[in-house]
Amino acid sequence: MYETMAGKIPYEGRNDTMVFILVTVKKEFPERFQAIPNDGGRTDRLWKLLTMCWSFDPAARPSAAEVAESMRAIVSNAETPILRPTPINEQDDSELTVQEGQPNEQSRKLGKEETTLSWILDRREILPASAFNPPAINTTLREDTFDRETRDQVNAKTLPHPPKDYGPRLSAAPNENGARRESPVSGEEPSSTHAIDAARRAWANNLKAEWARRGAQEENHHLYIHTDPHPLSHIQETPTSSYGYTPASAEQYRWYQEQQEELKYRKRQAARAFREAREAAAARKAFEEERQRLEMERLREEDRRKNEEQFVITAWQRYEHGWQDLMNGASEEDRPLTFYDIPWPVSMPVRSFGELQSTAIERFLLSPYHSTTQTRKMRLSAALKQWHLDAFTRLFGDRLEESHRTAILTAAHMVMHTIVELRSEETGP
């Protein structure tokens, strides 16, 4: 009913959530449809019936029988005085004869009624064309013939609408022979009783037919018939009568699928780019950390090498000075030599036999930080001359402390044995 009168569905343009809020929370009715001019209160009565049916109080809603009775009353317009025909009393020609520019009371009454009824159906749309041929109109037509011709003419049209131009109106009055004649009276045309009754019936029948036609059209509109020779079986068809949705065509569905595939492809590309960027950042970070570690190790190694070089140079100078002092004091009467007075060929001063290791002796005698002009073989030969046990005993044997003699000679023998092994390993010049 609302769609027929308003031309749209209730709450058109609102989504499901908003409609739910309007109905359950705000309890707001749909927008009221516009009233038809001069409809005799039908629009107001229809709207009142709709609001009663939409009442939020179930006890206030009318039953189906009450709704049907109200609809019949609205269609028949029983309470509207416009469609109740006003009887026309037979009067003399003298009583209906009016002076120019002064219509009598009957003419004004009938003219007002004709004007009010004219929006429903113009009299020229009801009466056949032969009824308007001058000089007179025969009003004794049979009612059934008149109704049939009127119904045929009305059914061929859409809903009645007010004519743009009413045209001249004729006033009906009886002549001397008892027949009615029409004469122009002040631009108004009163309707006869039969014409008004026929117009009322025609309007009611036409309105019912229009309602039935629109209802059938609405049902056909909601019925979806798929005409595609290759239907998409995986698409679920849903009824669209509630909100006016239309099912998508195959072309629209293919376009939607392409858009979804494009969106998925872009998401995969974005995820791949993000993953590659993250991996590249992690690789750069790892590379930078490794570079910094290597740089720190290089710096530490360089510092260690510099320190070691300086340490070895200092130890070598101390070793040579010790041997020089030992050789210079060999012919002088001096105190006896102890184990700690001997300049042993290692970097650190020796405090025990455990510090006279073969590796420590090799690292000290063959270090690249001293005697850079001598080869390894020349260094070993010079060291062997110093630490040969016979030569060492001949030079320092009588100066050794008796308590340290055994320890000194044993240590000198260990040094000589290490130098001999290193010299035997040398194959070059």
Describe the structure in your own words:
- The protein is mainly α.
- It folds into three domains: 78 residues, no CATH class; 130 residues, no CATH class; 182 residues, no CATH class.
- A two-stranded antiparallel ribbon has the order 1-2.
- The chain starts with a helix and ends with a helix.
Percent in helix? 40-55%
Order of helices and strands: HHHHHHHHEEHHHHHH
**Spans with pLDDT under 50 lasting ≥5 residues?**
78-104, 109-143, 157-191, 224-242
The coarse overall form would be rod-shaped
Mean pLDDT: 71
Q: How are the strands of the largest sheet arranged?
A: 1-2
Distance between the termini: 122 Å
Number of strands: 2
Overall radius of gyration? 64 Å
Q: Characterize the main sheet.
A: 2 strands, antiparallel
What is the count of distinct domains? 3
Structural class: mainly alpha
Strand content: under 5%
**How many helices?**
14
Biased composition (Basic and acidic residues): 141-154
Biased composition (Polar residues): 96-105
Organism: Rhizoctonia solani
Region (Disordered): 83-111, 135-194
